[in-house]
Amino acid sequence: MSGLNDVWGELIFGLRSPRIVTMIGGGGKTSLMYCLQAGLYRAGRTAVAATTTKLSRDSSCRFAPIASLAEGYDAVESALRHGALITLVAGVAAGDPAKMAGIPPEWIDRLATRFPDTVFLVEGDGSAGRPLKGHLAHEPVIPAASGLVIAVVGVDALGTPLNAAAHRPDRIAELTGAEPGSPVSARLVAELLLHPQGYLRRCPPASRVVPFINKVESPERRALARELATVILERRHPRVDTVVIGSVRQQEFERVVAEA
User: Fold this and answer.
1) Which end of the chain is more exposed for a tag (fewer CB within 10 A), N or C?
2) Which CATH architecture has domain 6-257?
3) Strands (E), the chain
4) Can you give the pLDDT at residue 239?
5) Is the pLDDT of residue 259 over 50?
6) Is the pTM of this model over 0.70?
7) Where are the domains of the chain?
């Protein structure tokens, strides 16, 4: 698994075709997507980054804009032939030149079937830079063939007032009963992650769900992240038996599993 952290390598290399990994939530989805893409590329695997919503235009990223399904196939096929790292989008977002528009999730399903050896890394929602996300009825937007869904949370949400830590705190308050101004607790995050109308809404039935607690960059944050992972796993949700904690920025990751 040279080039890709072993924690993520075990999860991603074990996927069957079509190989689609979708990241949802808040607290580092885009950074994680490009971290995994670079690691897969170093490991000799072809990986395409994509979004089904909107993605910031980053000058360090190579975008492959597409206007139609046929052009999308051509763009991907050309990039794969030349071994390029690409981000698959639909062009500049209407009314927001700072963003790139996403492509329909069913296009990703079809592309992943056509290119079975390619890993498609997909950002499935936006969080306005917040470490926690409240999802509306149409969110997240996850390709149906996603074999792995990574639910991202920033550990910096813990202890922060909900209305400061979350994108759409009113939605989270509606689902969990928390007061918008109350501090975010491990219990609240676990409830939101595992709520059928929270992070798990619209997750394909056959996909594996792995929460990832990001921004763990100090001993104090590690202790908070491990506590949160324990609270999540103690709920014994049938779809969640592993939590990853760590830091995309520091490229350090740790896997926490449910006790037998």
Assistant:
1) C
2) 3-Layer(aba) Sandwich (3.40)
3) 19-25, 47-51, 54-56, 63-65, 86-89, 92-93, 96-101, 119-123, 132-133, 148-154, 166-167, 208-214, 242-247, 252-257
4) 93
5) yes
6) yes
7) 6-257
